[in-house]
Specification:
Layout lengths: L1 E9 L8 E7 L6 H11 L3 E8 L2 E7 L4 E2 L3 H15 L5 E6 L2 E8 L2 E7 L4 E3 L3 H7 L5 E4 L4 E4 L3 H5 L5 H5 L6 E6 L6 E7 L4 E4 L3 H15 L3 E6 L5 E8 L2 E6 L1 E10 L1
Length: 261
């Protein structure tokens, strides 16, 4: 079987920055093990699999090791593939996913994605988390899959060198680390996700589903400019709208071709 594949860098205006994602176009979803094998072969943070469904698309996401219920940057990349390559006359596309209907809209050279906001609960600071990070958070929140560790200053986030193997041993083996911005951005963050087979994710739309409500409540601002300070780096223009988070960003096409499976 010969399938179209695209690779894009999301949440960046230039190649070799932001978060790379592969997008594979299918007629129907094959066996899960095959999609997992393709994602492992691509060895990117996420591979998205697209199946046309009327005027919409069905969408699933795989890291090199697991299927995930939500991925922002690969959805942004999938939207760009549909709007720029598959159906260039369109301005908006809807995806049916495990996290419900998600939309991507073209907006003045960028793309906007609509995602569900995610609430996290404050918890006592776990000693093992402090040890793994090498710095004591000022506050920690959690949901069923992630810790959110708040640090005092943006440079604490940028210079962090955590023990990723120790994070992998935590009861929640994925950690969002964040701090207030430093003038040019409202929010600075990084995301370490060894529980998903990703030591550090370059730019994470899903993490901002939790970051935006958190910082909106503390700053009183519904619009935030966020920077994910991974080595590749990426910028997200964020808005909180009720129970939804809108993220805006650019993408750069890197590769277009076919795979044989």
């Amino acid at each position: 079987m010969r399938l179209p594949i695209f690779q894009l860098d999301a949440f960046t205006t230039r190649r070799f920055a932001g978060n790379p994602a592969a997008v594979v176009l299918l007629d129907a979803f094959p066996d899960d093990a095959l999609m997992q094998a393709v994602a492992a072969e691509n060895n990117l943070a996420e591979t998205a699999f697209l199946v046309p469904s009327g005027d919409r698309y069905r969408l699933r996401w795989f890291t090199p090791t697991v299927e995930v219920p939500l991925c922002g940057h690969a959805t942004l990349a999938s939207g760009a593939v549909v709007l720029e390559r598959l159906e260039p006359g369109r301005e908006r596309v809807a995806f049916d996913t495990a996290s419900g209907a998600l939309t991507v809209t073209r907006e003045e050279g960028r793309y906007a994605i609509d995602l569900p906001a995610r609430a996290m609960e404050r918890v006592p600071v776990p000693e093992a988390l402090t040890a793994a990070l090498g710095v004591a958070p000022v506050e920690v929140l959690a949901d069923d899959g992630n810790y959110l560790a708040v640090l005092a200053a943006p440079d604490d986030v940028r210079t962090l060198t955590p023990d990723v193997a120790a994070i992998a041993r935590l009861d929640l083996a994925n950690v969002i680390v964040t701090a207030p911005g430093d003038g040019s951005h409202d929010v600075v963050s990084r995301y370490f996700a060894p529980g998903k087979g990703i030591p550090e994710d370059p730019v994470t739309g899903g993490a901002h589903c939790a970051l935006v409500p958190y910082w909106a409540a503390r700053t009183g601002k519904d619009s935030l400019l966020a920077y994910q300070a991974s080595p590749r780096g990426g910028e997200l223009d964020c808005r909180l709208r009720g129970g939804r988070v809108e993220l805006r960003g650019s993408v750069a096409f890197y590769l277009e071709g076919h795979i044989e499976i």
